[in-house]
Write a structure and sequence with these properties.
The complex is a heterodimer of chains A (486) and B (392). Chain A is built from 15 helices and 12 strands. By secondary structure, chain A is an alpha+beta fold. Chain A has 3 domains: 110 residues, no CATH class; 114 residues, no CATH class; 168 residues, no CATH class. In chain A, helix 2 crosses helix 3, helix 11 packs across helix 13 and helix 14 runs antiparallel to helix 15. The radius of gyration of chain A is 30 Å and the shape is elongated. In chain B, 35% of the residues lie in helices and 31% in strands. Chain B is globular and about 95 Å long. In chain B, a hairpin with a 2-residue loop joins strand 10 and strand 11. By secondary structure, chain B is α/β, with parallel strands linked by helices. The longest helix of chain B is centred in the C-terminal third of the chain and has 30 residues. The chains are: A alpha+beta (486), B alpha/beta (392). At the A-B interface, helix 10 and helix 15 of A face helix 1, strand 1 and strand 2 of B.
Chain lengths: 486, 392
């Protein structure tokens, strides 16, 4: 790579050219007894006040104590007030540092440049989590600032064995990606594999953790195999259980690996509440999962193929409701489910000031009016509403979408084959789920393969003092998480 | 490719071999909830009660459903059913039949002649209630609308269910049960009967629902006594409960004991009947149960356990008398072994039964010596400790 010239003026000109004369490239040339000192920074990403306070002041200050040092360069290097200060001697990382908000100082006659941190605060503060709200537990969430995010974890786990491995991904974005793990708990094999997969990525830009998650899985599936969370407590819990967490710069969502199906039935709150009640809540979530996948399909199957299974009064009530509805039941269900999915999607995308209007249109027009107009029967509205409410229990958007895909598959299966169709597709579904594997962890662990030990925190949650070990499917390196005291 | 072929084959097999291709939208079905069998001269008359004919401009509520009765005629039941299918515009669906009513003509002619069609039909559930129409055409029973239930078949079913255990006139007998009872050796079945109090025309009119005192309504009648598959006659209401007690079908009855010239009403519960065969000529029936004094107008001191004992004794004696009278009547008048004594003999001693079988109903059953033992106890006296009287 090109060495930095010994002429400050030349370096400044070159930098301006490098950035295509963009107006935010700010330079200053200070003449110190015949020696030119060049200061280069990007106005857009650095804090101007820091630069004037420390660099310009510091430069002028060197005038007075210059005699203490051999030359101006050393005087500058040693007397500037900043915690992050180092030197480079070529152009390789020139752009990276400038764009990250560093200030570059070059001195005539020296082929080295001083780099100093003068970053502008281009992120919001730590706020409450909006995508994973909880009642009982810490409320903070990750932000777009990489160091803040790592700090939120350091704050929670003070062990020096909490290690971060950093690499830069994206040819143009040069995004910092940190792999966090606890040395001595996390499985080194899994860690090695993750690093191997990340190193293979050669893409122009990584803007979000979502961009790299597809590189980290082995088998394709509609269900997410990597958990994503914006809560520091969730991440800390994951780290403590031996999981590996990936932080991506400028993205509040972290990736947690390895991840299993049962994790989506857990919330961070489960650790904070009474364990005896949590078991009940988890059973409810499991029921909701089954309901949200199967209800529309079962409704179609029993009303169009197996009417025998419906109680007399209900059957007649259903038959009367269907009277005058022009479409087949399957079409009705697909129509309403699709409308709901569109409604959910548009509600997510629209600004919050419009969502009130949206809910009026959604609830009144689509629900009430469609029934009154005789397009759909009331029971269909109930079935679809019930299904949708149950699906909203799960916070992970990818998991919800996975459920949605299979719900549609089951609806089609039920409309062609009835109950038999649901059953045969349920078998296919289970086979697919249990054959999923990532980082040597089966997706249906700890149920398939069955591990009796890990049932203490699967659906049933044992009292905290009874959960002695970490789950086997995550790491077997250091299994004991607590010592039994007598 | 191989995988795809495998999946496709699985599907083709699943679709073709399971036999579950019966796609049917609910609103294309005519849901039959009750069936009536009648007979005119040499033709069968089959009637379907269809529950889901909607009113014009329906609002979607179950109560808004209107019921319609369709009738078809034919030399066979199957022919009659085809006759109805020509009138009913939608697909007739028999999966939810709740009640089957047969007329006296059918019953006298022999029930087994018509039994096959409903049993053989793969759609039907086989668990519906069977009822004997009394003094009326079976078809008319289906027409009566009830103010308390949304459609007639439901009102008949609830009527039987609530009556069978507590009020003891009727027992609930399902279609398939009844057939197996007919076919059992040494056993003659009974059927609950149903009749209309009032006029059919008024009862089938929706206006019947609008009055506070309906002009016509359905009542459960006494038991119909069968001999084999043929109707022999109807018992009286009083005999009906006695038969049910003896058969062990009713667990609760309300019994009036005459004690010191006043009637004491006793609510009897946990009734049990135990039939014991001593030999082919002697049979012993033990009735046990507990009672609760329900109504007493005497000035008897019922806090005195001696009085209670006396009441108990009178009660046991009187019940025993009533029951023996009924057995005598069944033995001599109907000559139908509705208690299944013959069946018990057959089960205990098949060899003896072979000798008796031929002339059982005509010769041996009427001459049976039936001994009744009662084992009853008054356990409570309701909410009051004593009778209402002045202090002395």
């Amino acid at each position: 790579m090109e060495k930095i010239e010994k002429n400050a003026k030349k370096v400044i000109e070159k930098t301006k050219k490098l950035y295509g004369n963009s107006p935010d490239v700010n330079t200053r040339l200070i003449n110190l007894k015949g020696t030119n000192i060049g200061i280069i920074f990007l106005e857009s990403s650095s804090q101007a006040s820091t630069i004037s306070d420390f660099i310009i002041k510091g430069t002028l200050y060197t005038k007075t104590n210059k005699n203490l040092f051999q030359n101006i360069f050393d005087a500058l290097k040693n007397s500037l007030f900043n915690s992050q200060l180092f030197t480079i001697n070529d152009y390789t990382q020139f752009a990276y540092f400038l764009s990250s908000g560093f200030t570059i100082i070059v001195v005539d006659g020296f082929s080295e440049a001083i780099i100093m941190e003068t970053r502008a605060q281009l992120d919001r503060g730590v706020t409450e989590s909006t995508s994973e709200p909880i009642l009982r537990g810490s409320k903070d969430s990750f932000t777009e600032s990489h160091s803040k995010n790592l700090g939120l974890i350091r704050k929670r786990i003070k062990d020096s064995n909490l290690w971060f491995d950093e690499m830069k991904l994206g040819r143009r974005t040069q995004t910092r990606v940190s792999i966090a793990y606890i040395n001595g708990i996390a499985d080194p094999k899994k860690l090695k594999e993750i690093k191997k997969r990340l190193k293979k990525i050669d893409v122009d830009g990584v803007l979000d953790s979502g961009n790299i998650r597809d590189y980290l899985i082995e088998n394709k599936s509609v269900f997410p195999q990597i958990q994503s969370s914006e809560r520091p407590d969730v991440v800390s819990q994951a780290l403590l259980s031996g999981k590996i967490v990936i932080f991506v710069e400028n993205c509040p969502f972290t990736l947690i690996l390895p991840n299993v199906f049962i994790d989506y039935l857990h919330t961070s709150e489960d650790e904070n509440q009474k364990s005896s009640n949590i078991t009940f809540t988890r059973v409810l979530r499991t029921i909701a999962l089954i309901i949200t996948i199967f209800t529309p399909a079962i409704y179609i199957a029993i009303t169009t193929y197996d009417q025998n299974t419906i109680p007399d009064k209900l059957l007649i009530s259903l038959a009367i409701q269907r009277e005058g509805v022009p479409f087949p039941t399957t079409f009705e269900i697909i129509l309403l489910t699709t409308i709901f999915e569109i409604l959910r999607e548009s509600d997510l995308r629209s600004p919050s000031s419009m969502s009130a209007a949206m809910s009026i249109v959604g609830a009144l027009v689509l629900g009430q009016a469609a029934v009154d107009a005789g397009i759909v029967s009331p029971i269909t509205v109930i079935v679809v509403a019930f299904t949708s409410i149950c699906s909203l229990i799960f916070t992970d958007i990818d998991f919800m979408n996975g459920i949605r895909t299979w719900r549609f598959i089951f609806i089609l299966a039920a409309s062609i084959l009835g109950i038999i169709g649901i059953l045969s597709f349920a078998i296919i579904w289970l086979v697919k789920l249990s054959s999923l594997e990532n980082l040597e962890t089966s997706y249906l662990s700890p149920f398939a393969p069955f591990s009796k030990k890990d049932q203490s925190n699967a659906i049933y949650k044992a009292p905290e003092e009874k959960i002695i070990t970490r789950p086997d499917y995550v790491s077997t390196l250091n299994p004991h998480r607590q010592r039994r005291t007598k | 490719m191989k995988k795809l072929a495998f999946i496709l084959t699985t599907f083709i097999i699943a679709i073709t071999l399971t036999g579950c291709g019966g796609y049917e939208e609910l609103n294309d079905l005519s849901i039959v909830t009750a069936v009536a069998f009648d007979k005119t001269d040499d033709e069968y008359e089959l009637s379907f009660l269809i529950a889901n004919s909607p009113k014009a401009q329906t609002s979607a509520k179950e109560g808004e459903a209107k019921t319609t009765v369709y009738t078809g005629k034919g030399k066979t039941i199957a022919e009659a059913s085809k006759d109805i299918e020509q009138i009913v515009p939608k697909q007739v669906y028999l999966g939810h039949i709740n009640v089957v009513v047969i007329s006296e003509d059918i019953a006298k002619d022999g029930f087994l002649k018509i039994a096959d069609w409903l049993l053989r039909n793969p759609q039907t559930r086989k668990k519906f209630y069977l009822l004997q129409a009394k003094d009326e055409k079976a078809k008319n029973i289906l027409k009566i609308v009830s103010p308390l239930e949304s459609f007639p078949s439901q009102s008949i079913a609830t009527l039987i269910e609530s009556n069978s255990e507590t009020k003891s006139i009727a027992t609930s007998i399902t279609y398939s049960n009844f057939i197996s009872q007919i076919l059992e050796k040494g056993y003659d079945p009974v059927l609950p009967s149903i009749t209309i109090n009032g006029n059919v025309k008024e009862g089938s009119n929706e206006k019947n629902l609008e009055t506070t005192e309906p002009e016509s309504y359905l009542v459960l009648g006494p038991l119909a006594i069968y001999k084999g598959d043929k109707l022999e006659g109807f018992s009286t209401t009083k005999e009906s409960w006695a038969i049910n007690v003896l058969k062990g079908d009713s667990k609760e009855i309300n019994y009036n004991v005459k004690y010191q010239n006043e009637k004491i009403s006793i609510e009897t519960s946990s009734l049990k009947s135990n039939i014991k065969i001593i030999d082919e000529k002697n049979i012993e029936i033990t009735i046990s149960g507990v009672g609760d004094i329900y109504n007493i107008n005497n000035k008897i001191d019922i806090q005195d356990y001696k009085e209670i004992n006396k009441i108990e004794k009178t009660w046991m004696k009187s019940l025993k008398n009533d029951l023996s009278k009924v057995i005598k009547k069944v033995q001599n008048k109907y000559k139908a072994d509705i208690f299944g004594f013959g069946n018990l003999i057959y089960k205990n001693n098949p060899k003896t039964w072979k000798k008796l079988e031929k002339d059982w109903n005509s010769k041996y059953f009427p001459k049976l010596n039936v001994k009744i033992k009662t084992n009853l106890k008054i356990e409570a006296t309701g909410s009051l400790i004593n009778t209402i009287k002045e202090d002395k």
